[in-house]
Design goal:
Structural class: alpha/beta
Bound molecules: zinc ion
Helix content: 10-25%
Length: 277
């Protein structure tokens, strides 16, 4: 393993609901989950349905290494894989879970354990056998993961709130920004701060500029705004995530064409994509 490698793997790029079928085959249908490898440290951002397959991969891999799961918020499409994430059931694994304030909940631990109880899931809140540590982080916080990774947080504009992350390692930076709504004609200063001169950022591209007025208040943004932010923040590559369930491959291909015309290196993110920065 390259100790300097900074690698991002997309396990779920769908927003709102998982989908399946031939119309989605090339983009994939799992909900939000991104793996971030910084040298030999693994961070996971969000635990939508994509996290199940990631968990399967992680079983048997050096279980003495702590694992770190960052949650943007606790809407279903970001947490519905949690009951099926294998590392939570391995006693040798230390797992750290981090989240910003979760509206309507006493905090990160309360929320995660709540998902495992009846009537949602028939097992009970003490079911995890890993060495679990829960961390409530602030909305404008900075914390350290291991010796060499720094994580910055910022609040996003989403019903009930959500947290954006910027991960810095080995002189490079990656930002994760979903779910969030922008005000037309105005850049969100919190988002600009997260993506400022970063090497790669993922952005909530649920909607298009044309669709946005119809969905005001839903807490989502557009690929056009992602590209404007990219320019304004002198950021590197943008990858569009949170594809809505009705976005079939053909439509996402046309979004890709629009994105490529504006910025050749930016792309629609699809399940299985791996990017090194
Ligand atoms: Zn979402
Ligand atoms: Zn949400």
């Amino acid at each position: 393993m390259n100790k300097d490698a900074f690698k991002i793997t997309f396990w779920g790029t769908r927003g709102t609901l998982p989908v399946s079928g031939p119309n989605y085959a090339r983009t994939g249908g799992n909900t939000n989950c991104v793996e971030v490898n910084c040298g030999d440290t693994t961070l996971v951002i969000d635990a939508g349905t994509g996290v199940r397959e990631l968990g399967t991969k992680l079983v048997g891999q050096d279980e003495s290494r702590p694992l770190h799961l960052l949650l943007s918020h606790a809407h279903y499409d970001h947490v519905e894989g949690i009951p099926f994430f294998a590392p939570f059931f391995i006693p040798e694994r230390q797992v750290n879970i981090y989240s910003g304030p979760l509206d309507g909940s006493a905090g990160c631990e309360d929320t995660i354990k709540g998902l495992m109880q009846r009537p949602f899931f028939p097992v009970g809140k003490e079911v995890f056998t890993a060495d679990m540590h829960y961390h409530d982080v602030g909305v404008r916080d900075t914390f350290q993961v291991g010796n060499s990774i720094r994580v910055h947080t910022a609040p996003l504009n989403h019903p009930g709130g959500a947290t954006g992350f910027r991960i810095e390692f080995n002189g490079k930076s990656f930002a994760y920004v979903t779910d969030t709504e922008h005000e037309p004609g105005k850049h969100d200063e919190n988002v600009l701060g997260l993506i400022e001169a970063c090497d790669l950022f993922v952005y909530d591209c649920s909607l298009t500029d044309q669709e946005l007025p119809e969905f005001t208040g839903y807490g989502h943004s557009t690929h056009e705004e992602g590209l404007r932010l990219q320019k304004a923040a002198s950021a590197g590559r943008m990858m569009a995530v949170h594809h809505l369930p009705f976005r079939i491959d053909a439509q996402l291909d046309s979004f890709q064409e629009q994105i490529s015309r504006c910025c050749p290196k930016s792309t629609i993110a699809r399940d299985g994509d791996v990017v090194e920065i």
